[in-house]
Amino acid sequence: MTPGARLSAAIEVLADIAERRRPVADALKDWGLAHRFAGSGDRATIATLVYDALRRRASAAWIMGEDSPRAVLIGSLRLQRGLAARTVAELFTGERFAPAPLSDTERARLETGTLTEAPVHVAGDVPEWVVPSLEAALGDDLLPELRALARRAPLDIRVNTLKATRDGTREALAHLSPEPTPLAPDGLRVPLGEDGRGPALHVEPEFLGGWFEIQDEGSQLAARLSGARPGMTVIDLCAGGGGKTLALAALMNNQGRLIATDGDPRRLAPIHERLRRAGAAAEVRTPRGKGRPDVLTDLDGTADLVLVDAPCTGAGTWRRNPDAKWRLRPGSLATRVAEQESVLDRAARLVRPGGRLVYVTCSLLPEENDAAVAGLAGRRDDLTPRPVDLPPEVAPKVRRTAHGIQMSPERTGTDGFYVALLERGYDRS
Predict the structure, then answer these.
(1) What digits encode the pLDDT tens for the residues 137-159?
(2) Does residue 196 contact residue 152 with C-beta atoms inside 8 Å?
């Protein structure tokens, strides 16, 4: 496909997303199935164009004076890729399936449009209704953080210390030029290509051999800050596909007892193969049958550590999932808050006296973070929030909140992870 034809395809996908309010991955998949002539390189480039346009949807529409898929794509070429109006015009020729030529108005907007007078939600490319919550979390750093949240995310991997070392893995992957992550001691950062996409890590022999997993540095730090150690009884209550379960197993050096479960058994499906590949020891408990009965009742009051990687809006991962921010509604946030309350109450019953509960979200919204912790502490007088113990290289980077710590793209270069610790007291009666 020609560069112009790829732009036309991206506009088509953006129109599908806007009209049907569907996830970008579904729209891209359907486009690919309907246009089988497109090669893998074409599909990758189209996907990057679409994701970049969604990252800058509001600001691109502002400088172009309209929010059509075409206008958003044009604006994003300038804002996200830094292309001049003349360069954009050379792609919009109307020839060989390229989009129609730029109008005089479009060219003028590209040349003179500015975000100087744009409101925060436009300049920061987020829904207007979430700005008060984000401002409460980010304060004076609101706009720099939102702009960082609109950039492309890095590609991080966590070296599996059950099988390999960071230096050894870095040497084995030297052809990809990885560098150590700034904060996570077991992480490597793999450079992205000019199109913003990373290499196919899943085909590397070291990945197939279980040497590493793809995991954002913030997620790696969240697992490490849990304080999991060899010999503990640890429960990963919302394990999903197992990313943090694998990190916990490595921190415990496969010594102790690690139990992984999730309220949605479908999310657990990948965990078995991932555990096998990593050589990680964990007991997976999958809810089965009508009503999904509780599979942890025998563990109540026994866990040294319960990790709750809670279901959330994912507002801290909008670099990777930019379509999600435009689909988020107040009702969705309310639903997540209710789910968090339920899972925290369940987690609290699992913690032994003297044990601790670590609450993690990939969100920047205080309603899902400090408010959830305060709510649990208010319902359970035997659980007390405690300061999260931070390594010296991490402490200056994160934000201390009322009950936990907040990582963010601008401050830590990671996704927006929140971590809080609650300790269960002993019964003094």
Answers:
(1) 999 999 999 999 999 999 999 99
(2) yes
pTM, to two decimals: 0.94
* Count of C-beta atoms within a 10 Å radius of residue 415: 28
Q: How far is CA 72 from CA 57, 61, 75, 83, in A?
A: 6, 5, 5, 14
HEC string of 338-382? HHHHHHHHHHHHHEEEEEEEEEEECCCCHHHCHHHHHHHHHHCCC
Distance from C-alpha of 139 to C-alpha of 106, rounded to nearest angstrom:
35
For the stretch 223-279, pLDDT in tens is: 999 999 999 999 999 999 999 999 999 999 999 999 999 999 999 999 999 999 999
Q: How many helices (H) and strands (E) does the chain have?
A: 19, 13
Would you state the structure tokens that stand for residue 235, as one six-digit string? 């429960």
CB atoms within 10 A of CB 117: 8
Beta-carbon contacts of residue 115 (< 8 Å; ≥ 6 apart): 59, 62, 63, 122, 123
Structural contact between residues 412 and 398, judged by C-beta atoms closer than 8 angstroms: yes
φ, ψ for residue 418, nearest 5 deg: -115, 140
